[in-house]
Automatic annotation (TrEMBL):
PROSITE patterns: ULP_PROTEASE. Belongs to the peptidase C48 family. Pfam families: Peptidase_C48. This is Ubiquitin-like protease family profile domain-containing protein. It comes from Drosophila rubida. Residues 17-177 form the Ubiquitin-like protease family profile domain. Keywords: Hydrolase, Protease, Thiol protease. InterPro entries: Nep1/2-like (IPR044613), Papain-like_cys_pep_sf (IPR038765), Peptidase_C48_C (IPR003653).
């Protein structure tokens, strides 16, 4: 995936996550974000912003999708043996489902497993289209995470003002939630995002990627 290409060069890399010029161009206009950008931002949270925080685990959309179809043995190998997930207070899972209204359009949402709250919180900026998938994932992983008694809760959140900003909403919600739980050790009580935060995020991401690109 990360092969050199003069037509579509890699602009920034973190561990196994690379961003090409074509990925970054999606941030410039009214476009859906792809998995590469969401993956990259979750890698940034894991490897840079919250590198010293042992309470947080960030799982990409691809990982969340795979976990839907894993049995307990496979989940244990991934979540417990590899990621030490039973020691994490908060697990942030970006999900990539399909919108009921448009079968060809991917839709990103955010599922958060909170041990202090004993709850799986689902944040969906487009009317609850990923609720079934997020509930299914919660039920599939709660035994392995030792969160058998955790409840599932669809959390009220800012709704998209267009049909293409779901990825931006997930990134902004991940930002807000990590900051909030760092201070309060709970998801409960977090307020919905403000529209201004969404509007500013694309330019912030472009600047962040440019700054990280210097380290290639």
């Amino acid at each position: 995936k990360a092969r050199a290409s003069r037509a579509d060069p890699i602009l920034a890399s973190l561990s196994r996550n690379s961003l090409r010029m074509s990925d970054v161009q999606l941030l410039h206009g009214p476009h859906w974000l792809n998995e590469a950008i969401v993956n990259f931002y979750f890698a940034y949270m894991e490897e840079i912003k919250y590198k010293a925080n042992d309470d947080f685990l960030f799982l990409t959309p691809e990982m969340s999708q795979c976990m839907l179809y894993m049995d307990d043995k496979e989940l244990h190998s991934l979540l417990v043996a590899q990621y030490k997930a039973t020691r994490k207070s908060f697990i942030f899972m970006a999900m990539n489902g399909v919108r009921a209204r448009d079968r060809d359009a991917a839709h990103f949402t955010l599922l958060v497993a909170s041990r202090p709250d004993k709850t799986f919180y689902h944040f969906d900026s487009y009317g609850g289209n990923n609720s079934n998938g997020s509930l299914e994932l919660s039920n599939n992983i709660k035994d392995v995470l030792d969160m058998q008694r955790a409840r599932f809760r669809s959390q009220r959140c800012l709704q998209q003002s267009n049909d293409y900003d779901c990825g931006i909403h997930v990134i902004c919600m991940a930002d807000q939630l990590t900051d909030y739980v760092n201070r309060f050790d709970s998801v409960d009580g977090v307020q919905p995002l403000h529209q201004d935060v969404i509007k500013a995020k694309r330019n912030q991401l472009i600047k962040l990627i440019a700054s990280l690109g210097q380290h290639i």
